[in-house]
Amino acid sequence: MVGPEWIWSLFGPPDLGPVAFETLERRTTPNDALACPPHFCKATSDLVPPLFAVDAGGLRTAMAKVIASEPRITLVHSDGPARTDRYVQRSALLGFPDTVVVRYIEQPEGRSTLAMYSRSQLGRSDLGVNKARLERWLGKLRQIVPVVQ
Predict the structure, then answer these.
(1) Torsion of CA 126, 131, 132, 133, to 10 degrees
(2) Distance (Å, rounded) from C-alpha 71 to C-alpha 95?
(3) Under a CB-based contact definition with an 8 Å cutoff, are residues 52 and 145 in contact?
(4) CB count, 10 Å around CB of 147?
(5) Strands 84-90 and 73-79, sheet pairing
(6) b/e for 84-120, b at 16 or more Cβ within 10 A?
């Protein structure tokens, strides 16, 4: 391994691992972002994802299309029974790694929503990158999946 990936590996693995949304405690530094439905996460959410008019499996399939449209992203873990996927997305210029965890949440009447937590491996501040990522992903998802009004 050479280049930026080798340098960043000195700070630990780029994949920061899983999270338990129900007990998640946010960082004290401004380098993370959380999108979570009301009453699902212990931590305060930056964004509230909508209720989608598809089941959790359909939402996961649609999100896979959103993820495929993103640059420099790698799936690092997928847990089918827990309906959770984890990705590492790297910045364009220096390849800084951010870990993003997405959990799909089944709702009544064939509907679903999701929780997403994005956090940076390096730096005290992310300059809003993690929140912007979650907003972008939710925007793309809304373009391909109907939202329940």
Answers:
(1) 100
(2) 11
(3) yes
(4) 14
(5) antiparallel
(6) bbbbbbbbeeeebbbbbbbbbbeeeeebbbbbbbbbb
Distance separating alpha carbons of residues 120 and 33, to the nearest angstrom: 9
| pLDDT tens per residue, range 73-131 | 999 999 999 999 999 999 888 888 999 999 999 999 999 999 999 999 877 778 899 99
State whether residue 63 is helix, strand or coil. helix
Query: And the tokens for 43?
Result: 């931590």
Class (C level, CATH) for 4-144: alpha beta
- Tokens 């997403």, residue located: 116
Tokens of 12: 């630990």
Considering only CA atoms, give the Rg of the chain: 15
pTM over 0.70? The answer is: yes
